[in-house]
């Protein structure tokens, strides 16, 4: 039958949530041993990969094989690249100041507070944002232009994330740039190429889900909207810009560079 297998999708929701929470539980155990809660950022990408793989296995025989494989590969490539990048970036560093500030607000046991506020919350968000990944596995109609457009938008997003991260890492590795603001390459087009990349990745995955049917798209549009809110209004762009606001040269950089969507920089007088 051509359409969307709602019953199979519904059965997938609990195993998908379990996969996300299991990744966060294991990460919490490792954090207790190392004393570093910053490793939860590494688990973010791994959690999405786990949900995608579980959904792919459970959907065998239910959805269109090409779409199932496509959405799983897109999610795993994005998630594992992000996890490896964050792991390399954080190697040899202490606790992230964001988590130090968060845990300073704890009343009672700091670790239990972290479990509730950081790990469980991120596990729920991984499951929620990955709903399009889960739903795309159960569309039975053949792939169409929506899947191609989604994969193309995903590729744009991955390019901005990977290239932006690489450019920033090279810039920071030069001692001559210590204390300076990165304003070159993709960072001259947008102050947040990695966040813009995330935005494109998840709207691209959502387009692949649109390929599975209008019903699946209507149910899962909350996911890219949630990710967009986190990037633009939540823990992404606003938090980083507050942290960077006092750095010398940042005000001038912000005045001439797009806050999110890429565009040529404004030229000063």
UniProtKB/TrEMBL annotation:
It comes from the Bacteria. The chain crosses the membrane at residues 12-32, 39-59, 113-133, 145-164. PROSITE patterns: S5A_REDUCTASE. InterPro entries: UstE-like (IPR010721). Keywords: Membrane, Transmembrane, Transmembrane helix. Gene3D superfamilies: 1.20.120.1630. The keyword Membrane applies. It holds the Pfam family DUF1295. This is DUF1295 domain-containing protein.
